C-alpha cells in the first residue's frame, strides 16, 4: 500500500463475501471494475489456515495448505455465521475442521486451544480483501458495501456487519447478492424491464425478481434457501467417492474428507463441459478410488436439489404477482449456474434463454461497487429499492406469532404498536421478536428478546407504550419505544439469540488492535534480525578479502562479535539496531571501502531473495 | 397490543383522496418520492436526521403498499374520511353471512376439474367487481358507513377467491 493521499471523491468499495470465494470491486467513473493484485486471480478463496508454526494464512495461500492441514484450514463459515450450533449440525458434520458448541450454543471453530467465532474468520477474509483492494487502489480503504444472500435473516446480516467491523471496515450497507447482480446487469439503462436473477452460489441459493426503470432498481420479490448450493452438489459426489473407499474409517479422517471434497469439486467442474468424467484418487494407505461418472448420473443425483431452486423461483413470481413467462430477462449469478442441468431447467420454467453477459463470478462484486458509489454520494441517477426476505413478528399469548412486517415489503419499512402493562407498577415489558413465515413461535427463528425498561410505575393497563419497529435499508430491525402519557423514552435492551453481543464485538475490536500492535513488534524484530545477520555475513567475507591494519581489523572483529552475541541471545529489535549501527560506524571509517562494498552487496542479495519469495 | 394506524397514505403521497388512482401515475409518483427521500440519497451525519430520513422513507414505502392495492386503498380512504368507521361497521347482515358461508362451502367442495373451477373463479371475480362498483357509489354519496360494510363484505369474496386459487 502506498502512502498516496486518498482521492478527492469518496471511495467506497463493494465486497462479495462468498461461501467459497470473495472479491472486491470499485466504481470510479462509469463502469465498475474488480480490484485484484496484478496478474492474480480476481477470486480470493474464503479460507483461513492456522499453521502450526503460528502463521495465519488467508486466501490462495490457505487453499494451498488445505490438504496438509485439513483440521486447521477453515472454509464455508458463511454456512455457520449468525446461526446456532444445533441449527448447523449437518454442516458441521461435513466439515473437516472441528466446530464445537460454545456459549449460547453458538458455533465455535476449534483450532488447538483457541475457539474462534465464524465472524472472526470472516473478518480475516475481509481483511485480506481490504488489503488487496488497498494495494490495487494505492490508498487506504475504510468503507465498504458487503453482500449477503437475499435470504439471510436479521441475525445473519448483523453477524456479517460485525465481521466487517472486526476487519476495520465501516459497512455502509448490507446488500442482497441478487440485487447487486441486477445492478451490474442493468447499469446504463439498456435493460429496463422485469428481470429474474437466479443466484446459485457455493452455499446459498437466491432468486429475486426486479423491475428496472430509468435507474431505479426495484425488487418485487425474493425467495431462496440459505442451505443450497454448489457445496451440496460436491457433497453428493463426495459421498459416492467415500462409499467406494475400502475402509469406512475415512469418514472420520480430516485428510480423507478434504481430499475427497476437492476431488468431488473437480469432477463436478469437468461434468459441466464433458459428458463423463473419471477420477483416480490415491489416498496412500487409506486406499485408492477409481470412479467414472456420466453427466446423466450426476444430473439424476442433483435433480431434486435443482427442483428445490425452481420451487423458490415459482414462489417469488407468485409474491411478485407475475407470471413467470412475463419476465423479460433471466440473469445467472454464481459458479453453480455453469451446470448445464441448472440452465436447462430454468430455461424450461421461464421460457427464456438465460442472459450471460455479466460474468457470474464477478457480477455481485461489481454490483456492490455500484451501490457503494451511490452511497458515497457520487451517483444520484441510480437508486435501489430492496425488500425484507422474511416476515417479522412478535410472540403473543399462546405462543403464536403476530406478523408485524410481511415478507417482500420494500425497505425501509416501519410499523407501530401500542403495549401496556399487566400488573400495577410494572416498569418493564418483554417482547420476543421472531422472523419467519410460520404461525407458531416455535417454528420461527427467535431473533432476540427486547426488554422495555423505565416505564413509569402506573396502575395496570394505564401506561401506553408506543413501540416502533423499523427495518432499515440493510434489512436490520431497529426498535424504539416511548410511553405516551409521560413521554418517557423506554430504554431497550436487546439480547440477540445468535451472533455476537455488542460487548463481544467491542472486546474483539480491542483485541485486534492489541494484536495489530503485537504483529508490528514481531515484524520489526524479524526485520532487524535479518539485517544484522546479513551485516555479519558481509563483514566477515570482506575481512577475508581486504588487508587491513591490525587495529582496524580488531575494531571490526569486536563489533561483529558484539552483534553475533546479541543475535545468539535473541535480543530485541532496539538492541540489534543499535549494535548494527555500531558495526556500520567501524566499517565506514576504513579508508579502503572494500568492506562497505561487500556489506552492501550482501544486503542487496538478501533483499532480492526476499522479493523472489512468493 | 393495539395496532397504531399508519399515517394517511394519500397525504404521504400528496395525491387526491379518491378510489380511482391511475396505476401508472401512482407508480411514477412513488419512484419520484423515493428518489427524493430514500436514505441512500440522504446520508446525513447526525443520527437524529438519519432516523427521520428512515421514517419518511418507510412511510412512503408503506403508503405505496396501501395505495397500489384497491382494497387497502379503500380502507385507508374510509379511515381518513371518518376515523374508526371500519370498526364501527363490523356487524354484517345475517343474510349476507349465510350467502358467504355457502360460497365458502362451494369453494371447499369445488371439483379439481378446471371447468368448474374457472366458472367459480369468474363468479367470484364478478362479485368482487360488483362490490367495488357499489363502493364507488357509496363513497361518491359520502355514505362511509355503508362503504365500510361493503369493504367488510368484500373480504369474504376475496378470501374465497384466495382459497380457490390455493387449491389449484
Summarize the topology.
The complex is a heterodimer of chains A (614) and B (168).
Chain A: E1 13-17, E2 21-27, E3 32-35, E4 44-45, E5 47-50, E6 56-58, H1 60-64, E7 73-75, H2 89-94, E8 99-101, E9 107-111, E10 114-116, H3 118-137, E11 143-148, H4 154-166, E12 170-176, H5 177-186, E13 193-200, E14 205-213, E15 216-225, H6 230-243, H7 254-273, E16 276-282, E17 288-294, H8 295-320, E18 329-333, H9 340-350, H10 363-375, E19 383-385, E20 392-395, E21 401-405, E22 413-419, E23 429-435, E24 445-453, E25 465-471, E26 477-483, E27 489-496, H11 502-545, H12 550-568, H13 573-588, H14 594-612
Parallel strand pairs in A: 1-11, 11-12, 13-18, 15-19
Antiparallel strand pairs in A: 1-2, 2-3, 2-4, 5-6, 5-7, 8-9, 9-10, 13-14, 14-15, 16-17, 20-21, 20-23, 22-25, 23-24, 24-27, 25-26, 26-27
Chain B: E1 2-3, H1 9-13, H2 23-37, H3 47-68, H4 70-81, H5 85-88, H6 94-108, H7 114-140, H8 144-167
Helix pairs in contact in B: 2-3, 3-4, 4-8, 6-8, 7-8
Describe this structure in words.
The complex is a heterodimer of chains A (614) and B (168). Helices cover 38% and strands 25% of the residues of chain A. In chain A, a hairpin with a 2-residue loop joins strand 14 and strand 15. The two termini of chain A are 17 Å apart. Chain A has 14 helices and 27 strands. By secondary structure, chain A is an alpha+beta fold. In chain A, helix 6 (230-243) crosses helix 7. With 168 residues, chain B is mainly α. Helix content of chain B is 74%, strand content 1%. Chain B contains 8 helices and 1 strand, in the order βαααααααα. Chain B has helices at 9-13, 23-37, 47-68, 70-81, 85-88, 94-108, 114-140, 144-167, and one strand at 2-3. The radius of gyration of chain B is 19 Å and the shape is globular. The interface between A and B is medium-sized, with 32 and 23 residues. Strand 22 (413-419) of chain A pairs antiparallel with strand 1 of chain B, so a sheet runs across the interface.
Amino acid at each position: 500500500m502506498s502512502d498516496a493521499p486518498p482521492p478527492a471523491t469518496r471511495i467506497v468499495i463493494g465486497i462479495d463475501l462468498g461461501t467459497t470465494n470473495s472479491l472486491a470491486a470499485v466504481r470510479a467513473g462509469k463502469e465498475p471494475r474488480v480490484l485484484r493484485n496484478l496478474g492474480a486471480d480476481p477470486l480470493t478463496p474464503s479460507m483461513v489456515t492456522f499453521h502450526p508454526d503460528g502463521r495465519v494464512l488467508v486466501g490462495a495461500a490457505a487453499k494451498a495448505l488445505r490438504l496438509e492441514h485439513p483440521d486447521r484450514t477453515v472454509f464455508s463459515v458463511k454456512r455457520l455465521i449468525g446461526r446456532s450450533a444445533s441449527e448447523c449440525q449437518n454442516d458441521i458434520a461435513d466439515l473437516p475442521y472441528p466446530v464445537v458448541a460454545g456459549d449460547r450454543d453458538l458455533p465455535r471453530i476449534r483450532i488447538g486451544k483457541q475457539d474462534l467465532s465464524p465472524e472472526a474468520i470472516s473478518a480475516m477474509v475481509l481483511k485480506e480483501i481490504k488489503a488487496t483492494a488497498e494495494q490495487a487502489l494505492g490508498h487506504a480503504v475504510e468503507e465498504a458495501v458487503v453482500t449477503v444472500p437475499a435470504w439471510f435473516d436479521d441475525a445473519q446480516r448483523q453477524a456479517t456487519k460485525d465481521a466487517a467491523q472486526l476487519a476495520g471496515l465501516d459497512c455502509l450497507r448490507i446488500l442482497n447478492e441478487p440485487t447487486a447482480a441486477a445492478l451490474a446487469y442493468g447499469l446504463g439503462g439498456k435493460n429496463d424491464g422485469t428481470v429474474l436473477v437466479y443466484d446459485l452460489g457455493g452455499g446459498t441459493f437466491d432468486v429475486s425478481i426486479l423491475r428496472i426503470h430509468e435507474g431505479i432498481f426495484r425488487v418485487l420479490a425474493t425467495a431462496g434457501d440459505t442451505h443450497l448450493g454448489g457445496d451440496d452438489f460436491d457433497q453428493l459426489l463426495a459421498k459416492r467417492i467415500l462409499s467406494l473407499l475400502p475402509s469406512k474409517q475415512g469418514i472420520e479422517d480430516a485428510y480423507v474428507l478434504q481430499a475427497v471434497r476437492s476431488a468431488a469439486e473437480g469432477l463436478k467442474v469437468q461434468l459441466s463441459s464433458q459428458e463423463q468424467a473419471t477420477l483416480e484418487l490415491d489416498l496412500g494407505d487409506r486406499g485408492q478410488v477409481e470412479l467414472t461418472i456420466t453427466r446423466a448420473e450426476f444430473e439424476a443425483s442433483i435433480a431434486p436439489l435443482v427442483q428445490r431452486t425452481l420451487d423458490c423461483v415459482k414462489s417469488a413470481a407468485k409474491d411478485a404477482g407475475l407470471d413467470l413467462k412475463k419476465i423479460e430477462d433471466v440473469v445467472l449469478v454464481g459458479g453453480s449456474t455453469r451446470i448445464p442441468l441448472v440452465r436447462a431447467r430454468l430455461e424450461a420454467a421461464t421460457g427464456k434463454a438465460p442472459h450471460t453477459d455479466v460474468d457470474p463470478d464477478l457480477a455481485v462484486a461489481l454490483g456492490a461497487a455500484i451501490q457503494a458509489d451511490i452511497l458515497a454520494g457520487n451517483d444520484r441517477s441510480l437508486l435501489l429499492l430492496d425488500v425484507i426476505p422474511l416476515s417479522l413478528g412478535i410472540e403473543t399469548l399462546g405462543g403464536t406469532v403476530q406478523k408485524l412486517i410481511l415478507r417482500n415489503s420494500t425497505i425501509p419499512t416501519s410499523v407501530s404498536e401500542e403495549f401496556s402493562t399487566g400488573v400495577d407498577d410494572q416498569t418493564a415489558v418483554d417482547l420476543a421478536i421472531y422472523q419467519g413465515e410460520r404461525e407458531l413461535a416455535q417454528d420461527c427463528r427467535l431473533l432476540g428478546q427486547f426488554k422495555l425498561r423505565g416505564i413509569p410505575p402506573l396502575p395496570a393497563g394505564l401506561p401506553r407504550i408506543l413501540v416502533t419497529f423499523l427495518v432499515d435499508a440493510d434489512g436490520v430491525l431497529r426498535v424504539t419505544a416511548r410511553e405516551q402519557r409521560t413521554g418517557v423514552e423506554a430504554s431497550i435492551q436487546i439480547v440477540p439469540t445468535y451472533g455476537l453481543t455488542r460487548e463481544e464485538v467491542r472486546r474483539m475490536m480491542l483485541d485486534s488492535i492489541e494484536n495489530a500492535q503485537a504483529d508490528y513488534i514481531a515484524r520489526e524484530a524479524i526485520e532487524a534480525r535479518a539485517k544484522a545477520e546479513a551485516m555479519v555475513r558481509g563483514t566477515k567475507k570482506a575481512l577475508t578479502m581486504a588487508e587491513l591494519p591490525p587495529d582496524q581489523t580488531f575494531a571490526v572483529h569486536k563489533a561483529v562479535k558484539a552483534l553475533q552475541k546479541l543475535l545468539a541471545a535473541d535480543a530485541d529489535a532496539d538492541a540489534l539496531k543499535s549494535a548494527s549501527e555500531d558495526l556500520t560506524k567501524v566499517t565506514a571509517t576504513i579508508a579502503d571501502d572494500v568492506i562497505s562494498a561487500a556489506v552492501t552487496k550482501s544486503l542487496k542479495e538478501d533483499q532480492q531473495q526476499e522479493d523472489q519469495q512468493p | 397490543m393495539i395496532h397504531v394506524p399508519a399515517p394517511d397514505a394519500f397525504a404521504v403521497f400528496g395525491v387526491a383522496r379518491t378510489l380511482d388512482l391511475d396505476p401508472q401515475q401512482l407508480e411514477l409518483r412513488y419512484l419520484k418520492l423515493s428518489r427524493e427521500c430514500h436514505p441512500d440519497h440522504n446520508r446525513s451525519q447526525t443520527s437524529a436526521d438519519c432516523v427521520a430520513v428512515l421514517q419518511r422513507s418507510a412511510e412512503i414505502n408503506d403508503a405505496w403498499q396501501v395505495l397500489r392495492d384497491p382494497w387497502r386503498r379503500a380502507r385507508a380512504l374510509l379511515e381518513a374520511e371518518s376515523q374508526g368507521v371500519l370498526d364501527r361497521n363490523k356487524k354484517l347482515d345475517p343474510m349476507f353471512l349465510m350467502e358467504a358461508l355457502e360460497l365458502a362451502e362451494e369453494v371447499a367442495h369445488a371439483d379439481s376439474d378446471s371447468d368448474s373451477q374457472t366458472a367459480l373463479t369468474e363468479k367470484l371475480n364478478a362479485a368482487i367487481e360488483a362490490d367495488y362498483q357499489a363502493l364507488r357509489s357509496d363513497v361518491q354519496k359520502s355514505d362511509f358507513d355503508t362503504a365500510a360494510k361493503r369493504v367488510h363484505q368484500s373480504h369474504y369474496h376475496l378470501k374465497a377467491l384466495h382459497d380457490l386459487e390455493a387449491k389449484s
